[in-house]
Inverse folding.
């Protein structure tokens, strides 16, 4: 039986979510996506118009298909949580069922149980501000979109995951080392995400028989990373200093995700796994 996967945080073919989808599709999984509501229209029209066809090519020559594409906004758990200004916003008005609980219910109705849950999303409205200048609102927004969103997803999708299933999120080393420029509470949000990975590995492990890990990825020039502003410097720094001297490809992180989400990693849970060309192991820039 092919595995069923739900991946939250894909809005183009440039980021880690897409690469994870592809690695899972190569391994024979059925893929459904949760796409951030403001990005959904452009994603769906690009998909329809063939803009992603080159990136959709699998090694057997076929194109990666998505079983279902759902609108999603991971900062809302239930319809009651959606404030009026969002509900009436023109990018949200046409979307229905985008809160985490509704999205899980729709996945359950369309697909039944799933085996794989991927959280590849983050958002920090004040990411370009140093932590010392971050507002309470900005900090809490970063935590809500980037950390609590994973707790919310496991709460709502956990009950529809098959025993033996697995989940992952994506994190960044700014949680544990000082990365000037990764601000707005995003470093705090990644620290929470990593700590939650351990606690949720225990709780969801006992409750649902599933595994929970996070991948600490090296720098990639995704859309989210470009918004931070210094991604090219990070890529250069990594190239100059990492033990493996090459640019990180999203595909390499996709492959680590496919491993962690497969039975090959059946004894791995509660872990932060680095996929960063080894940069985390360095103690001194060279
Ligand atoms: P990306 O832009 O491809 O992915 C981020 C996604 O999050 C986007 O699709 C965006 O639409 C979605 N999103 C934002 N707010 C959302 C919300 N409220 N609800 C639902 N979706 C929402 O960029 P990426 O770099 O591939 O990011 C994926 C993950 O990888 C993130 O957790 C990021 O922090 C992490 N990461 C990235 C890097 C890097 O250098 N790019 C390094 C380490 C970790």
């Amino acid at each position: 039986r092919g595995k069923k996967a739900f991946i939250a945080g894909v809005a183009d073919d440039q980021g880690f979510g897409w690469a994870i989808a592809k690695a899972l599709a190569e391994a024979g999984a059925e893929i459904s996506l949760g796409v951030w509501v403001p990005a959904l229209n452009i994603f769906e029209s690009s998909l329809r118009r063939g803009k992603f066809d080159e990136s959709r090519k699998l090694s057997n020559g076929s194109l990666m298909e998505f079983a279902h594409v759902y609108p999603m906004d991971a900062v809302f758990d239930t319809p009651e949580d959606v404030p009026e200004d969002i509900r009436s916003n023109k990018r949200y008005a046409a979307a229905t069922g985008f809160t985490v609980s509704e999205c899980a219910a729709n996945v359950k109705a369309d697909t039944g149980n799933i085996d794989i849950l991927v959280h590849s999303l983050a958002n920090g409205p004040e990411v370009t501000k140093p932590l010392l200048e971050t507002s309470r609102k900005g900090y809490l927004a970063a935590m809500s979109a980037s950390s609590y969103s994973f707790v919310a997803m496991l709460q709502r999708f956990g009950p529809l995951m098959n025993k033996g299933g697995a989940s992952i999120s994506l994190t960044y080393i700014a949680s544990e080392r000082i990365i000037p420029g990764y601000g707005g509470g995003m470093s705090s949000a990644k620290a929470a995400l990593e700590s939650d990975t351990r606690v949720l590995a225990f709780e969801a492990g006992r409750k649902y028989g599933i595994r929970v890990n996070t991948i600490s990825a090296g720098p990639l020039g995704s859309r989210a990373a470009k918004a931070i502003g210094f991604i090219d410097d990070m890529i250069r720094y990594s190239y100059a200093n990492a033990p493996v001297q090459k640019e990180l490809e999203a595909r390499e992180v996709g492959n680590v995700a496919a491993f962690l989400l497969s039975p090959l990693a059946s004894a791995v849970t509660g872990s932060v796994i680095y996929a960063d060309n080894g940069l985390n192991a360095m103690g001194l820039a060279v």
About this structure: Residues 186-208 form the longest helix (23 residues).
